[in-house]
């Protein structure tokens, strides 16, 4: 907010320069940040452009700002803090922090996602119309008066929910576990973050599928880990590649999404699952099995879990409700040896990442009521319809632009462009045509790929979004 007193004896340009200097000293404009153009600032304040030029000239003369033709006006980074009062260089602090920002294209996608006029084919979540609100509402009403809301929190998670999950794992996946080996989390990412902090050290090597949504997360780089890629073919990763990485780099953990993998929707073959579990057990390399999609199977059985083949406790299993219930209930769980559970639980307590009891109660009531499976059955039918419609349109209208394999489950179609386009250019042009896309490079692939989500939009909206994408390709590929 600018306060200009035109009746003051102090010249207007000096009032502007003084106020701008104060904003810089307070950190409202950090070193290296771009200031408004002379014309724009003049319009904001309601003065002549020449007045702003005079104010900028004064700040330039004392080294507080820098002006370069073609680059605009920026707060100085070279002479920061020359004022008598001094100031903290917050940009230097931010840039030197260990926790890294997301990929620039991810930041741009997040920014575009706030524009509700754009069709979103980029997001990895269910559309709100697929949330089981009508089924959850009765659960909310029951829970609001529950005594558990006012009891001391269990740091491992609400025990009845852990028991419900233990039963779910046995009935659905044939995995025997107990409530004591389960830790409730706010989702898979919290569990992954805790594992990077508690089970690994800076400089340790890990292996991740390529491509993978893990590459869009700064968690691993922020922890100082060395990341090595495991290429995916039609049967998933090759266990032999894990062995080679262990011999060359002594990898400490393998992170996998083996069923309807994000973003390729490929599933690891049963033979490779068994081979990989046995290999990693023999080399003492823990496997983190991230399984958000196995219930979303459209054409065939999703196959067994790696955890069901684990005889030594070497597979750390991550489950979640986010891909079946939606983002309104952020509940996940980790199945691991008790020593691991205890270590991660202690770390979470130190960080004060406590879990609200309310969503845990909702999840427990919902999963144990029989309504959860009823919802999943309806969800799978609706998602299959959306997938089929998306495939129909892609086969009809996109044969000149992309190739793909029909996914048998999950939420994504992995598109390979016949004519590669620079990802930043593709994202920008798609937004201009009214649609948001997820370029493959932020997921660890080379340019020339797109992850298309068919779960966020109803079928008529999906048709409109795909038409916008077709127009994007048509404008870029002549």
From TrEMBL:
Q: Name one Pfam family in it.
A: GntR
Instruction: List cofactor names only.
Output: pyridoxal 5'-phosphate
Kindly indicate whether the keyword Disulfide bond belongs to this entry.
Answer: no
Keywords (alphabetical) are:
Aminotransferase, DNA-binding, Pyridoxal phosphate, Transcription, Transcription regulation, Transferase
Taxonomically, the superkingdom here is Bacteria
GO terms for MF = DNA binding; DNA-binding transcription factor activity; pyridoxal phosphate binding; transaminase activity
* Residues covered by the HTH gntR-type domain: 10-78
Q: Which SMART domains match?
A: HTH_GNTR
Q: Key word Transcription regulation present in the record?
A: yes
Q: Which CDD domains match?
A: AAT_like, WHTH_GntR
Task: Name the protein family.
Answer: In the C-terminal section; belongs to the class-I pyridoxal-phosphate-dependent aminotransferase family.
Q: What is this protein called?
A: Aminotransferase class I/II-fold pyridoxal phosphate-dependent enzyme
Species of the source: Terrilactibacillus tamarindi
